[in-house]
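[INFO] parsing input record for Kinesin motor domain-containing protein
[DEBUG] input buffer:
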Amino acid sequence: MSSPHLTPEMSLDGPASLRPDEDQATKHNITVAVRIRPLSSREILRGEEVAWYADGDTVVRNPNVSYAYDWVFAPTTTTCEVYDAAARQVVSGAMEGIYGTIIAYGLTSSGKTHTMHGYKKSPGIIPLAVKDAFSIIQETPNRKFLLRVSYLEIYNEVLNDLLNPAGKKLRIRNDPHGTIVDGIKEEVLLSPAHALSLITAGEEHRHVGSANFNIPSSRSHTVFTLTIESIPYGESNEGDAVTFSQLHLIDLAGSGSSRAETMEIHQKEGSYISKSLLTLGMVISKLTDGKDAHIPFRDSKLTRLLQSSLTGQGRVLLICTVNPASSNAEETHNTLKLAQRAKRIEVQASRNKISDEKSLIKKYQNESRRLKEELELRLEHEEEAKSPLLARIQHLTKLILVSTKVSGPISCLLRLIRDMKELTTSLEKELSHSSSDSQVKISECMEEHPSQALQAKDSLLNSIVMQKNSGVNNEAQQHSHQGKTVPSEISAEPLQNKQQVTVPSEISAGPLQNKQQVSCLTNRLRRLMRDMKQQTTSLEKQIGHSFLDSQVKV
Ligand code: ADP
Ligand code: MG
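[DEBUG] output buffer:
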């Protein structure tokens, strides 16, 4: 096998600043797969016969001649099987930094678009490759990846950006990274679904035409490019070079087949399509004929785009799609012969690295790191800014402490009420002689209306003491007391809310030896009452009535 002949023109495009991993670089040939599609029902109806068929997994033949390839897929083979057998290794190589190109080449209506794009029920190599790329990322926890895509068409020898309708007549430029399309829009990929939506949007801008029998036929070549960058996982990869590669997935326009179908494509378009494909054929021939001749990459946009793939480091898979119908037999033969030649092109698979400044993943990572540092710095500043805030909060807390001083009179008042309750209870004990059910319920009343209850109690005590002192124990009064009716002067007191204050029936018969104790307790209660009034007044001055009310109730 002869190696590609590097002309000065080609060496220009050589990936100079790409650093191929010399140890890993292995020379190998372009791999070629032939995929034969089934005859369509129309073709069968038309009386077409199968002219070319698969003979095993690697041979295509007709009754007279046979050709061997890396793979031959019979009409029953699904696109997934084609992907697994032939395309997967190109995609996985690209994920490891080895350039990859997959080209579907064949006559119009032979199955190129079916193979590359497919449809929902039978996804093509492009969606399968994108899905696989994401699976590989998932299964490679020791590396970080950045994927981006571009999508362009070559229509009438003009490059149009399918991801950006404004991007027309784009120019191709030589770059150390291979062949670069100036100003092409690249979208960073987030998911396989994202890629599919981009393709769908791109297809809207594509030039397609209907060939004969309403079969959709592309009038333009499309190049879907997945650019892959990866670096080892971890923060400390400052010195690590970035692994870089591109995966080109190319669906060529039909090369024309039956005269009827070719006539569907306008003459101008047809001639441009032919020019591209003829030049591709020429380039492939010259790359493999062993002569040190000029290789006409620049004669067509397609070959110019494919130049670095066909000469540089990488893996190339040519899928030659075949319509086995007898009416196309001769054109199919030519396609198969070209695929045979292409099989002899030698390329070199090696992992490529790029420098930091060229890498988008490094750029993003550095930006992310810078932003993180900036964020940390800001947080630090905020920490610093916290100190005056904390001081202010402390100051405000002090103010709140000032306000707790207000609670001084309240707690004092509550204490007084508590004391009064205790006193009242002991007073009740002194006054009562067991009959618990008929006890004076002054303590209950105290909780709700302390001052009124106190006044009521005061009056009650006075009257009791008076009665006891005078020794009066007449029937009427006793009857009145037995009926548990409050004396008239008490009921006329502020307890107008009809709260019943009862006194024990035995009071009138109570022992007189308690008199002094009762009087003492009454005096203490009076003092407390006075103190409480004073505290209430002071509290009212400080915080107003409403606050006082609520606090006292609490
Ligand atoms: P091309 O892109 O080469 O012009 P298409 O991919 O559009 O051709 O295929 C033409 C027709 O043949 C389409 O209707 C497509 O669904 C059908 N076809 C192509 N390849 C296959 C296949 N392997 N199995 C079944 N149908 C196929
Ligand atoms: Mg097509």
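[INFO] The longest strand covers residues 143-155.
[INFO] shutting down worker
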